[in-house]
Amino acid sequence: MPSTVTPAGSSTIATNLPARLVAELQAVLGPRGWSMEQDVLAKHNREARNKFTGMAELVLYPANTGEVAQCARLCHEAGIALVPQGGNTGRCGGAVADPGQILINLARMDKILETDARDFTMTVQAGAILHHIQQAAEDHDLLFPLSLGAQGSCQIGGNIATNAGGLNVIRYGNTRDLVLGLEVVLADGTVWNGLSKLRKDNTGYDLRDMFIGAEGTLGIITACTLKLFPRPRHLATAWVALPGIEAALDLLALARRETGDAIAAFELMSQFAQDLCISHIQNCITPLETRAPWYAMIEITSSRPRDDLASVLEGVLERALEGGFILDGTIAQSEKQRANLWAIREGIPEAQTLEGGSIKHDVSVPVSAVPALIEQGIKQAQKRIPGIRPCPFGHVGDGNIHFNFSQPENMPKAEFLAHWEDLNRDIHDIVAGLGGSISAEHGIGRLKVDELVHYADPAKIKLLAAIKQALDPQNTLNPGKVINHK
Amino acid sequence: MPSTVTPAGSSTIATNLPARLVAELQAVLGPRGWSMEQDVLAKHNREARNKFTGMAELVLYPANTGEVAQCARLCHEAGIALVPQGGNTGRCGGAVADPGQILINLARMDKILETDARDFTMTVQAGAILHHIQQAAEDHDLLFPLSLGAQGSCQIGGNIATNAGGLNVIRYGNTRDLVLGLEVVLADGTVWNGLSKLRKDNTGYDLRDMFIGAEGTLGIITACTLKLFPRPRHLATAWVALPGIEAALDLLALARRETGDAIAAFELMSQFAQDLCISHIQNCITPLETRAPWYAMIEITSSRPRDDLASVLEGVLERALEGGFILDGTIAQSEKQRANLWAIREGIPEAQTLEGGSIKHDVSVPVSAVPALIEQGIKQAQKRIPGIRPCPFGHVGDGNIHFNFSQPENMPKAEFLAHWEDLNRDIHDIVAGLGGSISAEHGIGRLKVDELVHYADPAKIKLLAAIKQALDPQNTLNPGKVINHK
């Protein structure tokens, strides 16, 4: 039933949404609680990598959990789908609405509700920006360790809905490991209050972890209680040259033991990736003269009042040299030197963009299978596209390599990028053969729904469908994401 | 259809199980794979605390996952319930069979399939004994940190099915946090192969955590991949006298920060609990002359090659003295002194038994609410039973207090124990008011099914039922545990 509605302060807009539903939602949310303006919608309908374009004609901005619940109930009754959206920084089209679907954005629900320095917990609304949470923890001399590129704009609700990874996973785990409790609005508008601070609770099935990583298809996360940690007071950062990729694993195992599991980051990159960054990104300086096929950055941290981490890290490098795991290594002697190391690691994606086209993968394998992944993947890529320049780097301690490839030097960018899906299939086949995952960090969203069905154990797909059917039988919560239901 | 079957090496036994099903199961499993002998069944039908008596007439001992799957399929087709059982050390009747139900015990599936020192993982069959897993990790100079009283006989499958807690949770988390992957046989005999070693995997809903803690009501865990950690090379252990229970929380927060989160155990006990143990358990020596209402034991560990943990812990105690969080403290100077401290902590339950009747609770609250729980709980208990002697102790860092009470000195034991349910209700009411859990470590089993319904958010109960219905619509997997279905 197409309708014409007149939003406050806006011109008349035609929409295919049921007029009664739109009016009811507007009444619940008040004039600040929704928008149908084209420029506002354009921002929400744009997807980070421009792979998808949303078609929402209405975006809702609830002010509290009760309003989210009422929106869900009304949409459920009308049979209209709700698509939850956080900071809209995802990479897989998980927050993109089809025509006739309504976006619900939690930006107004951004409050930090409580920080408890004795519980080491913080309770926040789902729309809180990750960076604000990090800062609020720091204000209590505590650490919220989730750290990723989009932290200035992504919302914690989206981080939880996608079980975001990032840089500190080796020490503190994925987002899943940082959440104690959740409040969730279910498909029919029921509120599940699981906003628990408990460290131990064995009262029935683990609902919390069912909603974490479900990408808004089972419920809308409205608030969460997060784990905090002592804030590091010391750190030490090294850059090492590796004789090969197997050596990276030996070094990692050695460093885990000898630092007392104090590794905050363990980042691997190929010589090509390092050099590309140094040549493209201003002020980046080669950390080591020694030429090697692989380099790694290790950072260790400690919250002890006195802790000579430089000595600890020196000890690791000495043993690694003795064991033949590294060819050379250096420890940052100043914050400036440390910043240079991080600038290299973090500059790789930008350097790749400056170098031309890139084909990327978000994959993981068991840590011990990283060498096989790299070796087989490069071989296959070179077979498919002679001259292709592999640019692997990333979180080797999590088995999570950003297995990127830069275009051959003399190939037009468009011609190279036309291989995207074929090369993805090649790499995903290798990943699957190694017991790996085709989505390590970014989720399934809309992008990988078919890919998941292609690779997953059929028993798993049946279980996913059974859970979706149990929690959202009308399929009104973010339909078409994670799993194609009905 | 009652039947008479003749098990190998046993006399003829009448059973109410369908004869055809029994014959089919026997054919699948072979002569070593089942028993109907009374003395064998008696062992499996006995429950740790004698609160429940199982009535199984048949116990199955499958040799591999394929056999488990066939058993599940046959029982599913016949509409006969399967009750999974591990080491049968649970406290809540979770592995107890009703008449007409069949026990399935995984004792024969006890192999350690693989240990990978570079992945820091171990893959084992679900029937592996926890202590054997700990030892196998040690053989690789690694640690599997799950540690609890029953470790000599409990099976890892049962630990996972109940999300067991124990002593090291403050550092390494609950069993849930120690599992990377699972293999599970579903109600209809389908095998879900989720035996992953991945540290990052965002491909759909979190099936792993749904099965963990589900107490065998959603599937039968047949194998798992576990996380291992560097084995500690150093430790330091302190005993401190506390002016009050609030001080324990200040000390805990201080120690988390100043040890660099190296706390392996932080155990609180009342003066009564300490003294009871020292008076009843042979060779236990008073660690501190200072009399105080509360004592705590702190143990910190490190895998660094050199780490002066005694100095680290001394620093913590100095700052705690300055802050007024402790009255006195001592650090164990020898393994003998350390053993004495652990003997006191671990001797409390036995000392309570020697002292007479005890009423116990397995509860948790937010760490910051522990003082309120203790204060309100003691007041209420003394009101109900004048002269009752509170004996609280346990994992304060997890908010998990073993809130035990010893009988008044001059009350007959039976008269005291008759108050069990009333006192449970009192304490559980207080726990619920503080946002706590009525089952911190032991699960729901059969014991707390009604209690869970009484205290839980109705939305939660509906979700649990929806999940059970989705995964086990015929209710043939451990029916009547966790949730009463149909």
UniProtKB/TrEMBL annotation, chains A, B:
Q: Which UniProt keywords apply?
A: FAD, Flavoprotein
Q: Which Pfam families match?
A: FAD-oxidase_C, FAD_binding_4
Looking up InterPro entries in the UniProt record yields: FAD-bd_oxidored_4_C, FAD-bd_PCMH, FAD-bd_PCMH-like_sf, FAD-bd_PCMH_sub1, FAD-bd_PCMH_sub2, FAD-linked_Oxase-like_C, FAD-oxidored/transferase_4, Oxid_FAD_bind_N
SUPFAM superfamilies of this UniProt entry?
FAD-binding/transporter-associated domain-like (SSF56176), FAD-linked oxidases, C-terminal domain (SSF55103)
The domain of life for this entry's organism is Bacteria
Q: Which intervals hold domain FAD-binding PCMH-type?
A: 52-231
Q: Which family does it belong to?
A: Belongs to the FAD-binding oxidoreductase/transferase type 4 family.
The UniProt entry, under PANTHER family, shows: BLL6224 PROTEIN, D-2-HYDROXYGLUTARATE DEHYDROGENASE, MITOCHONDRIAL
Q: What is this protein called?
A: Hydroxyacid dehydrogenase
Q: Which organism is it from?
A: Thalassospira marina
Classification lineage: Bacteria, Pseudomonadati, Pseudomonadota, Alphaproteobacteria, Rhodospirillales
